[in-house]
Amino acid sequence: MTTTHLQSWRTRVALLLAGQTLSLIGSSVVQYAIVWHLAMRTDSGAVMTVTTLCAALPQAIVSLFGGVWADRWNRKALIMLPDALIALATVALALSIANGGEALALFFVILLIRSAGGGVQTPAVQSLIPDITPEEKLLRVNSINGTIQSVNMIAAPAIAAVLINIMPLWAILYVDVTTAVIGIAFVALIRVQSAARTRSNEAPSVLTEMRAGLRYAWRYPRIRSVLISYALVCFVNIAPMNLTLLLMNRGFQGQTLDLRFTVLETAADKLAANEMAWSVGMVVGGALLATVGAKLFHDNMALLAAAFFGMGIGTVALGLAPTLLLYLFVDFLIGVSTAIGTSPTYTLLQQETESDMQGRVFGLLTTFSGFGTPLGMLVFGPLADVVDVRVIFVVGGVLTIPFGVWLLRVDKRWARKVR
Predict the structure, then answer these.
(1) For residue 66, is it left (φ>0), alpha (ψ between -120 and 50) or beta?
(2) Domain 3-189+206-418 class in CATH
(3) Where are the transmembrane segments (predicted)?
(4) Is the pTM of this model over 0.70?
(5) Residue-range domain boundaries for the chain
(6) Spatial distance between the Cα atoms of 183 and 189, rounded to a whole number of angstroms
(7) For residues 79 and 120, what is the distance between their CA atoms, to the nearest angstrom?
């Protein structure tokens, strides 16, 4: 019996989730610290637009290649290598800041590198999960993964808010380096029987395989509709959500909120509360799916449509919220809606995509959503310096709802065909 067989699927999943959890929390703390530093330093919609482009566009482009690589090469290596390269880039930024180098261009370059690493890693992670998980457990594992990541997103802004008030930015950057090393070690312990993905002399080119992945996705209406709707929702909804930093700074400046266990007074406190409210909602939504939802709900497309409805209505409410307390409550509900859509989306694609095409399909998902967000920011970011940022949230929310209607129609047509 091989070592792979001695290692149960639960052990392999636990090692993967543990490694990704540790890597994510360090990356999130540093990402929050960098973005907040730039937001508080500039208070500029233009700078937030460039920041979003640098954080999203490289991942969108590289994911096209990352998806092909995930179908062709060792998925474990494609998960670990980006963490190592990002850690090295983060060390370089820390050393530069410690020696007085804080040019905006430097921050943008590091964000570009971090984003590109995600373009390689994300398709590999999503493709490795069905390699080590029984199909009937996929929704549960994806929901647990989403819940763990959401817990990290609660901890990360809280940690970042504390650290940014007591430590220089260069020192905070080493948090990511430490967690990356530990995360790589966990993933290295996973034993997987690798499929033959090594390139031969007759293997098609990367561009040919990318085109094959796109043709494959377009052949199936459910996969195609998920990819398109994700991209367009990122354009009209997720992009404006990147302006919550400006909404908090401008809309609730001077407001103090006493939550009994803490008082939100400073800009850093409010930015952390903004992230944490959404993340708590993600935890609640993910926990519901991982427990009750995985047993009761089996229509992943309908769950994604419901998530779009919730995100659209919630985004409108964010723009209309008169108080910080109501804003945070609505932000929590948007987090619940987001979790209800994320795990079913991954599960649907994992179940309905052939194993040797999963990397490319997830690469397309990352690319489509990755392009949607920066393109949306090119529109909404500059507008935030011209019009009331609240109007942008209302418009973005209203434009999100039709995509939920579209997915329900696609789902009903598919249900009639399989009867």
Answers:
(1) alpha
(2) mainly alpha
(3) 12-34, 46-70, 170-190, 227-248, 276-294, 301-320, 326-349, 361-383, 389-410
(4) no
(5) 3-189+206-418
(6) 10
(7) 7
